[in-house]
Design brief:
The complex is a heterotrimer of chains A (about 500), B (about 425) and C (about 150). Chain A has about 500 residues and is α/β, with parallel strands linked by helices. Chain A contains 16 helices and 23 strands. Chain A has two domains: about 5-100, Alpha-Beta Plaits (2-Layer Sandwich); about 175-505, TIM Barrel (Alpha-Beta Barrel), CATH 3.20.20.70. In chain A, strand 13 (about 225), helix 5 and strand 14 form a beta-alpha-beta unit. Chain A is globular, with a radius of gyration of 24 Å. Chain B has about 425 residues and is of the alpha/beta class. Chain B folds into three domains: about 1-40 and about 55-110 and about 240-305, FAD/NAD(P)-binding domain; about 120-235, FAD/NAD(P)-binding domain; about 330-420, FAD/NAD-linked reductase, C-terminal dimerisation domain (Enolase-like, domain 1, 2-Layer Sandwich). In chain B, the strands form seven sheets. Chain B has a five-stranded parallel β-sheet with strand order 3-2-1-7-19. Chain B has a five-stranded parallel β-sheet with strand order 9-16-10-11-12, covered by helices on one side. Chain B is globular, with a radius of gyration of 23 Å. Chain C is of the alpha+beta class. Chain C folds into two domains: about 1-60 and about 120-150, no CATH class; about 65-120, Alpha-Beta Plaits (2-Layer Sandwich). Helix content of chain C is about 25%, strand content about 20%. Chain C has helices at about 15-25, 30-40, 70-75, 100-105, 135, and strands spanning about 1-5, 50-55, 55-60, 80, 90, 110, 120, 145. Chain C starts with a strand and ends with a strand. The chains are: A alpha/beta (about 500), B alpha/beta (about 425), C alpha+beta (about 150). At the B-C interface, helix 1, helix 8, strand 22, strand 23 and helix 9 of B face strand 3, helix 3, helix 4 and strand 6 of C.
């Protein structure tokens, strides 16, 4: 291309415009935030620059005559199992820029997906299945520390009364919560939507590390406030605003490093809520600078509990890494009420691609190991375990619970529900779906009323499917599914993998 | 409750619609001197020009009066109002009792005392009858002189020209349309007329109308000494309020019938509206006769509502005119010729003679009070909003209006929300 | 009476409402023909107009005011209020193209027809099954038809 760096020609997508259908109405020109479509004054028609297309499909979705098609660019490199095209293009880009390659959303690379290798049981003959439309099905679950044993006393009329004092719990109508996506990485309108959706559904959403805007305090009962290493937006009112406090130690998409919000995505409201200056990158430090050992974590957990007067559970979120089981055990012993584990496929608004695609382990393996280890040590009841990192459907959620999770965090799914097409350009702040941006022109594209409805619809749908799967297995509550490895069978996995997952092979 | 309305023009239509918003049952009686259902008076120039036929004149449908429970007494002139007995006497010998009376008798053409003006071949141009007369004459005459270069005169001239009559306009002021236009806008309009062959003479008027021995008009001697031949003279200098009836009844009349904020005269239960009334003028804050079509309807409507019991103040009208001259559209609203040298006014004007476009904006005390548009009239209403709602325009907002045109985002935020996206009514939840 | 209310906070300036309005008022009722053929040939137009200033935008059309300035200004009776439906109704045949309504309407709701001496004004899609086309087409629910 003329006047462009030569590697621009190796772009990923082509815009295909059907000449019979295109009426040059310019909707695509107005909608594309990457300016891939433009009005050509001389030719008096809409033209496009394929090199600018990021494959977000916004134009295709809104074209009133369905004239557009976004396709992978046809020109192919010579087949090479080692030097796949993306590696070739990474090098071109780095040779030009000398910079770290940033990316967004969860890792797309070919790390094994264990959900696809696990199959669920169903009841037949000896163990009848349950019809969820006719019999009660309990999807409710409680997150928090459960006591070792329950002690009862008798009341005057002889009925039992609970003597044991219970630790604070978060009550969820579904074993699902909206995962941490900071305000700044995503549109404030979506925080409003998640808050409303969570309230309507009776579940929770997580503020992420961007703080909590005052106008959302009203949804506090359905909010988990996050304290991350940058301590963005953390002050006393913030800590007291939610139904739970989460210390973010790590994130599945980028274990070992902190959050990253590029300066272009920081506007006045983000700046105020996060308590950071306008325009400069908000990068969270890799560790919490007051947590250098498990004892430090123990201290922080209890400092937060004291500050919130033990009213709410304190959660610790970690990335799934090699010794995740030992780390989780330490966290539980340090007093955490909830441990959230975020697997390698977790999403992000901005992360170096090398780290996102190469650091961390799959949630399936991590979850199974953490659950097993805590059981082995006899402390499984002391904390709820939440699984996060690329759960795509209700079947993934059911399998996660069977592997040991109390509940699942979903984030990418929630964003897909409101229109995301996984083009992974979140870090640019130009998201044309209005999701990963707070730009005045683009943020309007997410109407909280519409978005909340979609999120509610999603959870309702999954909830119903979970009920069907549970019923099919002859179970009528989440509690009976949790950690019930026997309901799973593996296909095509090695002995080691099955051993780690604690799951037998199908047929056995 | 009986409502009697003297006059069957647009103010009366407004009154019917205003009354019926509040009182679906009360009896309405209309006494109209002309023998026709209420018609669009400005349409007579279209009729004379041959652009429309008589079937398009009526303002409302055939069943309008019946549907609205209105009794029509057409071709009937009211001769006397007794404000004590609350009756109206007509030339048909009837005495009509009223609970509420509206005087909407409109205006009558002003004929100046030019020597020779009495006698045949002198016509006005304000009624359907005038138009029909001129239509009949137009095939028989060759030349007409129109005295008056205002809106009525120009329309008369255009219409006669379209019927094949040679026309000359005489206007005393240095330019035509001296009321609603300024020099530049007036010139653009005059050029259009000249291009089609209508002669326009400014700074001159008729000194004497000269007649033949038989008493027929043969021509006009101008104040500049020239003599122009013609077969007829159309006098189109203006209208004056037709207020004789009110005066005789002892109702207070200045230039027009004086009315208060609810359009009531000083006689109890007697109201006035339209070209005959002297009502609040928004921009001057004074009571003035502003014989403009929308004002007549609005005053009629407001008086109707007040007569029917709704106590609604009439906040005042605006002078406004929309006229096209042989394809050149023009709009003029509000104060467009501020007094020379008055520092309270600020004027911004942009003329493009080649494109035949002109825009003039007049500001006073940080608000838009008037505008003229020639050619490019599409944003007219949006400018009107700033005048009508008296929106403050300071600094950046004013610059944007001047440079980029009127935009709804220049409105004060509260007014915008109230107008376009008011809070849904809070239903019991 | 149910009117169409625009929300400037969620208008994304896509102009799809204008395209839908154009289609609904065209002869062919086909967007491609309406946009590429009818606009030029017969001056088919949208009654809905998107106003933009920087990142802010909103789609406006006739408010069907209770006390319309246009009805007061109309010299031919082409614009009238229908007391039953509450709509401000335009009778094309009666209109003489004087533009008085355009001048009087402070909401910019009236536009000149591109080819004829007639006006273009929203009719609330009174004869369209499913109601106003603009409301149905808005991808972001920025237009609502409600009683307020």
């Amino acid at each position: 291309m003329l006047f462009q760096p030569i590697n621009r020609n190796y772009h990923d997508f082509s815009i295909v415009r059907d000449k019979d259908l295109c009426i040059n109405c310019k909707v695509c020109v107005r909608q594309c935030s990457y300016e891939a479509h433009y009005w050509d004054e001389t030719r008096q028609k809409v033209m496009h620059d394929n090199a600018k297309c990021v494959g977000c499909h916004r134009c295709e979705a809104l074209c009133p005559t369905a004239a557009l098609l976004i396709q992978k660019k046809r020109s192919d490199f010579k087949d090479n199992a080692l030097w796949r095209p993306e590696f070739i293009k990474y090098i071109y880009k780095q040779a030009d820029t000398g910079g770290v390659l940033l990316t967004g959303m969860g890792s797309p690379v070919n790390i094994p997906i264990y959900w696809d290798k696990l199959l669920l049981d169903a009841s037949q003959v000896t163990n009848p299945s349950i019809d969820p439309l006719r019999e009660p099905m309990e999807l409710k679950t409680f997150l928090g520390s459960k006591p070792d044993k329950l002690e009862f006393s008798k009341t005057k009329d002889g009925s039992p009364k609970l003597k044991t004092k219970l630790a604070p719990q978060i009550e969820l109508n579904y074993p699902l919560m909206f995962s941490a996506m900071s305000f700044g990485s995503i549109n404030f309108n979506l925080h409003i939507a998640m808050a409303r959706a969570a309230t309507e559904l009776g579940i929770c959403y997580n503020t992420g590390e961007g703080g909590l805007h005052k106008s959302l305090y009203q949804y506090g009962k359905n909010t988990i406030v996050q304290v991350a290493s940058g301590r963005f937006g953390v002050h006393r009112d913030f800590l007291n605003a939610g139904a739970g406090i989460e210390i973010k130690v790590g994130q599945g998409a980028k274990p070992g490093i902190g959050g990253h919000l590029p300066g272009e995505k920081i506007n006045a409201m983000v700046s105020e809520t996060r308590m950071v200056p306008l325009g400069s990158d908000a990068i969270s430090p890799a560790p919490h600078h007051d947590i250098y050992s498990i004892e430090d974590l123990h201290q922080l957990i209890f400092a937060l509990k004291e500050a919130s007067e033990y009213r709410v559970p304190v959660s610790v979120k970690i990335a799934a890494v090699h010794n995740v089981a030992a780390i989780a055990s330490g966290i539980v012993r340090a007093g955490a009420d909830i441990v959230a584990i975020d697997g390698v496929r977790g999403g992000t608004g901005a992360a170096p691609g090398m780290i996102r695609d190469n650091v961390g382990i799959p949630i399936e393996l991590a979850l199974a190991q953490v659950d097993q280890r805590l059981r082995d040590e006899g402390i499984r009841n002391r904390a709820s375990v939440i699984a996060a990192g690329g759960m795509r459907c209700s079947a993934d959620v059911v399998k996660a619970i069977a592997l040991g999770a109390d509940a699942c965090y979903i984030a990418t799914s929630a964003l897909l529900a409101v229109g995301c097409t996984l083009c992974a350009k979140c870090y640019t702040g130009k998201c044309p779906w209005g999701i990963a941006t707070n730009d005045a022109r683009l943020a309007k594209r997410q109407n909280p009323e519409v978005a909340a409805k979609k999120m509610v619809n999603l959870v309702h749908a999954w909830g119903h499917e979970i009920e069907e799967m549970l019923g099919g297995m002859g179970l009528n509550s989440i509690e009976s599914l949790r950690g019930n490895r026997d309901k799973l069978r593996a296909v095509g996995l090695s002995d080691t993998e099955m051993d780690i997952l604690g799951v037998k092979h199908a047929g056995r | 409750m009986t409502y009697v309305i003297i006059g069957n023009g647009v103010a009366s239509i407004g009154a019917i619609e205003g009354i019926r918003r509040h009182d679906p049952k009360g009896q309405i009686v209309i006494i109209g001197a002309e023998d026709a259902a209420a018609y669009g008076r400005p349409l007579i120039s279209y009729l004379l020009a041959g652009k429309i036929g008589p079937e398009r004149l009526a303002l409302r449908g055939d069943d309008y009066y019946v549907k609205n429970g209105v009794e029509l007494k057409l071709g009937t002139t009211a001769t006397n109002i007794d404000t004590v007995k609350k009756t109206v006497t007509t030339d048909k010998g009837e005495t009509v009792k009223y609970d509420r009376l509206l005087i909407a008798t409109g205006g009558i053409p002003f004929v100046p005392p030019i020597p020779g003006v009495q006698g045949p071949d002198i016509y006005s141009f304000t009624t359907l009858a005038h138009a029909n007369t001129l239509i009949e004459l137009s095939s028989k005459i060759k030349r007409a002189i129109v005295i008056g270069g205002g809106l009525i005169g120009l329309k008369a001239a255009e219409s006669l020209h379209d019927r094949g009559v040679g026309v000359t306009i005489l206007e005393l002021a240095p330019r035509i349309l001296s009321g609603g236009f300024d020099e530049k806008a007036g010139k653009l309009a005059a050029n259009r007329l000249k291009n089609v062959g209508i002669e326009v003479n400014c700074g001159v008027t008729a000194k004497e109308i000269q007649r033949t021995k038989e008493g027929r008009v043969k021509g006009v001697l101008l104040t500049d000494g020239r003599f122009l031949e013609c077969d007829v003279v159309v006098v189109a200098i203006g209208v004056v309020p037709h207020s004789a009836l009110a005066k005789e009844a002892g109702i207070k009349v200045e230039r027009g019938i004086m009315v208060d904020g609810k359009l009531m005269t000083n006689a109890k239960d007697v109201y006035a509206a339209g070209d005959v009334a002297q009502a609040m003028d928004q921009l001057s804050g004074e009571h003035r006769v502003v014989p403009i079509w929308p004002n007549a309807y609005n005053q009629g409507y407001a008086s109707g509502r007040n007569m029917a019991g709704a106590k609604l103040p009439y906040l005042g009208g605006l002078p406004m005119n929309s006229i096209s001259f042989y394809g050149l559209p023009t709009i003029s609203v509000g104060t467009v010729n501020p007094p020379d040298g008055d520092k309270n006014y600020e004027v911004h004007a942009l003329l493009d003679e080649e494109k035949e476009t002109y825009r003039k904006l007049v500001f006073r005390d940080g608000k838009l009070v008037g505008y003229v548009l020639v050619g490019d009239i599409d944003k007219g209403g949006m400018y009107t909003a700033f005048i009508k709602f008296e929106m403050p325009l300071a600094g950046e907002a004013k610059d944007k209006l001047i440079n980029a045109g009127p935009e709804v985002f220049l409105w004060p935020a509260e007014l915008f929300d109230e107008t376009w996206n008011p809070e849904p009514a809070k239903a019991a939840r | 009476m149910k009117r169409v209310y625009p929300d400037k906070d969620f208008c994304i300036g896509c102009h799809i409402c204008e395209l839908a309005c154009l289609t609904a008022h065209s002869q062919s009722k086909d967007l491609i023909l309406a946009y590429t053929v009818e606009r030029g040939q017969s001056g088919a137009s949208s009654c809905k107009h998107v106003h933009e200033a920087g990142p802010t935008c909103v789609a406006l059309s006739c408010r069907h005011c209770d006390e319309p300035s246009c009805v007061a200004a109309c010299i031919s009776g082409a614009l009238q209020k229908d007391p039953e439906t509450g709509r401000t109704v335009y009778n094309r045949d009666k209109c003489v193209g004087c533009w008085s309504c355009l001048m009087a309407c402070p909401y910019g709701a009236i536009a000149r027809h591109p080819l004829e001496a007639k006006i273009v004004k929203c009719d609330l899609c009174f004869d369209r099954p499913g109601g106003p086309a603009c409301v149905a087409a808005c991808p972001n629910k920025a237009l609502k038809q409600e009683e307020r």
